[in-house]
TrEMBL record:
It is found in: Membrane. It is a multi-pass membrane protein. Residues 10-454 form the Major facilitator superfamily (MFS) profile domain. One of its GO terms (cellular component) is membrane. PROSITE patterns: MFS (PS50850). It holds the Pfam family MFS_1. The lineage of its organism: Bacteria, Pseudomonadati, Bacteroidota, Flavobacteriia, Flavobacteriales. This is MFS transporter. The chain crosses the membrane at residues 12-32, 44-64, 76-95, 101-122, 134-157, 163-187, 199-220, 226-247, 268-293, 305-323, 332-354, 360-381, 402-426, 432-449. Keywords: Membrane, Transmembrane, Transmembrane helix. One of its GO terms (molecular function) is transmembrane transporter activity.
Amino acid sequence: MNIYPKRWQALGYLTAGAFLSPLDYFIVNMALPSIKKAFNASDHQLQMVVAIYGLTYAALVVCGGRLGELYGRKKIFTVGLYLFLLSSLACALSPDINFLIAARLFQGIGASFLAPQVLASVRVLFKSSEQPKAVSIFSSVFGLASVAGQLLGGFLLNLHWTAFSWELVFLVNVPVTLLCIVGIHFTMDNNREEQRQNIDFTGALLLVTSLMMIICPIIFGRKYDWAWWIFAILFAGILLLVVFYRYEVQSLEKNKPVLIDPGLLQQPPFVLCLIIIFFYNFTSGLFICYPYYLQQFLHWNPVETGLAIIPYGLAFFLGPLLVSRIKLSSSILISIGLSLLIIGFTLTSLFIFLDERPSIFLNISLFLAGLGHGVIMPVMMRKTIGLIDKEKAGQASGLISISIQIGSVTGGTIIGTVFFSTLSMIGFPKAFALAVFLIAAAQITGIFINKKLVKYNKN
């Protein structure tokens, strides 16, 4: 008998809380034109509204996972919910753009507390036979968020029966967080490490600083025309990341507390899984380019734009649910997921190149790409977290979240830069077709890495 009888109910509230993190990314993108008009904000300030959230989320997510291990995943998850609730209210009631940016920073902190507790809790609460289904349910949330964010954002921005407009995209978080706070209180135990340790503050500072120095140049490089000092900061961030790793190794040797057990990064299969996760999250480039293409080139309104992403989002939602019923090895499922991504995005690129407007064929190709995303995500999460002992599940979950976030930021920046840089030279349709094709090309890396994973499984 499982010692966590309410684990499935708890998973519902955990996934609902985790749903907020990607939802906020998609829904806020839809609200940027309205925010710009309300505050007369510059493009740089709008970029900060989006970037500061992802930046703090990615930089602090490992710390969130470690805090869950030390103080209890239920407790830290609840703290994250309260932070997300209060910061969402602050966003909606912002008197100016700078206040909104500051509130978004705290939203990112709340998200960094929420996300790592979910995968870690699945590893702890569920039997190995139940974990595939639990991870699939969690993964389907990301597909649902991509649809809900675009659609809900479009509909909320077109409502005219309240005094609010863009504020509604933040206020929608309030009932979800309140529901989760109450629900998680009655369904989940505060599982944590048996032996309480001190927090590795030096390691946390080194990691957060290094990630900020890596992510900031990627986000703001295009704004400053990729000046030499952008690459200097990026290189310094990578060096500082090496310093952090060496510090953690020395701390472990001296029996001092560590933020991340260096042994995790000394396991080749685990590291290879993180690299695959990094590259398949280049798909974020689609959500940057496609809405812009539809609204600026085809002059579609927000609701029409939101509806256009349904084929991808619906397949992304269905993929994890289908995977839980398919009895194939993880390596085969990874190959299937990556192949669907490559085929789907390649066909999307071809159809846009041949016909500038969305068509039934384009929707089918987006559905294939979304299905690939939905297939590979739960398989990679389950495989990666399954390589790690339960006691280190929080740290592993944090590293997975970092790979997702940095992959999304890097992919979005590379794909977005190619798209916006080639617009004036080759025009909207060809620029978008090129950008989408690059997403497909990035997945080829995952195919080769998966072959290495298969070799490790045989050894």
